[in-house]
């Protein structure tokens, strides 16, 4: 049986996370697919929450997206300078691309 203090701590953590998301105005499409970050809509700040992505690399991802259009697969992020196989393997479980972006690019 869980201690009451453990339950309260877990509830408080979840509550604070929800408040932070509401206050920061995170679009629901960015956190689609079971909490994964959408590479095609994420802000630099959201990208920085990914393991191995700092401020400079987050800006490069957004710039790459602006210049080349949306990513069509999560593997496409490896086309961004500074993201190799190791970095990709650290973040592939935490990212997604919205399906609407794939159809947008093919039209």
Question: Mind explaining what this structure looks like?
Answer:
Strands 1-2 form a two-stranded parallel sheet. It contains six helices and two strands, in the order ααβαααβα. It has a single domain, classed as Photosystem II 12 kDa extrinsic protein (DNA polymerase, domain 1), CATH 1.10.150. It starts with a helix and ends with a helix. By secondary structure, it is mainly alpha-helical. Helices cover 54% and strands 4% of the residues.
Estimate the helix proportion, in percent. 40-55%
Count of domains: 1
CATH superfamily: Photosystem II 12 kDa extrinsic protein
Q: What CATH architecture do you see? A: Orthogonal Bundle
Largest sheet: 2 strands, parallel
Shape: elongated
Q: What pattern of helices and strands is seen along the backbone? A: HHEHHHEH
Distance between the termini: 55 Å
> What topology, given as strand order, has the largest sheet?
1-2
**Number of extended strands:** 2
**Mean pLDDT score, rounded?**
80
Q: Give the class-level CATH name.
A: Mainly Alpha
What is the gyration radius calculated from CA atoms?
16 Å
Beta-strand content: under 5%
List keywords for this structure.
107 residues; mainly alpha; DNA polymerase, domain 1; two-stranded parallel sheet
Summarize, please.
This protein is mainly α.
Secondary structure topology:
Elements: H1 4-24, H2 32-35, E1 37-38, H3 44-47, H4 55-68, H5 85-91, E2 95-96, H6 99-106
Parallel strand pairs: 1-2
């Amino acid at each position: 049986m869980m201690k009451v203090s453990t339950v309260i701590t877990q509830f408080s953590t979840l509550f604070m996370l929800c408040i932070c998301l509401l206050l920061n105005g995170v679009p629901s499409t960015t956190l689609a697919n079971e909490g994964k970050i959408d590479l095609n809509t994420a802000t630099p700040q959201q990208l920085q929450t990914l393991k191995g992505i700092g401020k400079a690399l987050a800006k490069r991802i957004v710039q790459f997206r602006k210049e080349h259009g949306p990513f069509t697969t999560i593997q496409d992020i490896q086309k961004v300078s500074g993201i190799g196989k190791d970095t990709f393997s650290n973040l592939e479980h935490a990212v997604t691309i919205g399906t609407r972006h794939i159809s947008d690019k093919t039209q």
